[in-house]
Amino acid sequence: MSRVARLCVGVLVAANGAASSMASDAYRLTIQPESRVVVDNLIFAPSTGTLIGNYDATTNPTGTRTLPGIFGGSGNNPIPVSVDVAVGEESETSPGGVLTLLVNPGAGTFAISELWIDLLNEVVIEAPISATITYSTFRTVSPSFLYPGGIPITIPIGNAQITVLTATLGAGDSIGTLTPNGDGSFTLAGAASLDVTFDATVLGQPGQGGTFAIAAPIGGTLTPTVDGATLTLGISLSNSSEIPGPFPAVENVPLDLPTLDPNTPAKVLLTLEFLRIDVTIASEIEGVATGPRLCQGDFNRDGSADILDFLDFFDAFGGCQLQPSPCPDPLRDADVNSDGLVDILDLLDFMQAFAEGCA
Ligand SMILES: [Ca+2]
Ligand SMILES: [Ca+2]
Questions:
Q1: Is 342 within 8 Å of 321 (Cβ atoms)?
Q2: Which of 114, 75, 122 minimizes the C-alpha distance to 96?
Q3: What global pTM score does this model have?
Q4: Considering Cα of 343, then 345, then 348, then 353, what sign does the dihedral take?
Q5: How far is the CA of 50 from the centre of ligand 2 (A)?
Q6: Ligand nearest to the CA of 341
Q7: For 122-173, what is each residue's pLDDT tens digit?
Q8: Do 81 and 190 have their domain in common?
Q9: Which ligand approaches the C-alpha of residue 334 most closely?
Q10: 101 and 137, same domain (yes or no)
Q11: Which of 13, 20, 53, 296 makes an SS bond possible with 66, Cβ 3.0 to 4.6 Å?
C-alpha cells in the first residue's frame, strides 16, 4: 500500500471512529445575554361603563360637567359609554433561562427534558393603553363642547405594565429531528410543548393574563464542542385566548377628551368594567445557549449518578432490546451509543459510564 493510500485509510478510520464515538448526549444549556425576544403581545378588552365630568361642588367647582343630549338638563351626569381597551406595542427584551437537550444523532432525534425561560428577565415592559370610546350624544360645560353620538374617539389612557412572561416545559412532547450538517453541527427542527405564563397590570388592575399551553415551533443549530455544545435557537410563541369575566370595575380613571382647543380638554372620569379580556401571545425568541455535556452515568439527568440511574436505565433497557431508538421514548432513550438500536453494547457503555461516576 502506498503512503498516500495508507494515509487515506488512516483518515477514513479516524473519521469513522469520530462518527461512531458520537453517543447519545445531554446538554444543559444556559441562554446567553446576546439572545433577544421580540414581544408583540396584545390585550384587548371590550368594556362598558360611564364617563362623568370631574366637577365637584366643593373640591373642583370649576371642573368639567357632563350633560346628556344637545340641549337642556343641568348638573353633572354620568354618560353611558362602551369602551374597547387595547394594550400593545412591539418591544424587545433580553431573555434568561436554561434548557436540557437530549440528542441521539444515530436515531436523528432530540428531546427537551427541562426548559425554563424568563422572556422579560425581570424587566417590566411598559405598553401604551388606548381606549376607543363610543357614546350617545352628550355635551360638556367648562369647557363647552358637543360630542355627537356615533363617532367613536380613540385616546391614550396611560400605560400597562407587562410584568411576567415566562415559558416552562408543558405536559406534551418536546421533540424533533436532528439532521447532521456535515460540518459537525446539527440542524434541529421540532416543537416544544410550553406553558407560557403572562401577566399584566392594566389601569391599575394586576392579573390580566394567565397560563397558556402552547405548541411552539423550535428550530436551531447545535454545535457540539469538546465538553459541551452551543445551540443557536429560535422559538416562536403564538396563542390567542379569551379570559371570561366578570372583572372588578376600574373606577374614576382621569381622562382628557379632545375639544377644538388642544389646550382646553374636557376633564372627565372614566369608570368601566371589562366584559372579557382577549390575550394574544406573539413572541419570538432568537437565542444562543451554551453549556456542558452531562455525565452519561446520570441517566435521569438529576445531577448525580446513583442507584436510581441504574434502576432507571435497566427499566428502559429491559423493554427495548433490539428495538430501534429512541426507545422507550426520547427522554429515557436506552440507545447510549447512538447507533439507532438498543442492544447489549448500550448496556456495556452505560455500565462503564456508571462505573466512572459523575465527578
Ligand atoms: Ca441521576
Ligand atoms: Ca445502541
A1: yes
A2: 122
A3: 0.84
A4: negative
A5: 70
A6: 2
A7: 899 999 999 999 999 999 999 999 999 988 999 998 899 999 999 999 999 9
A8: yes
A9: 2
A10: yes
A11: 53
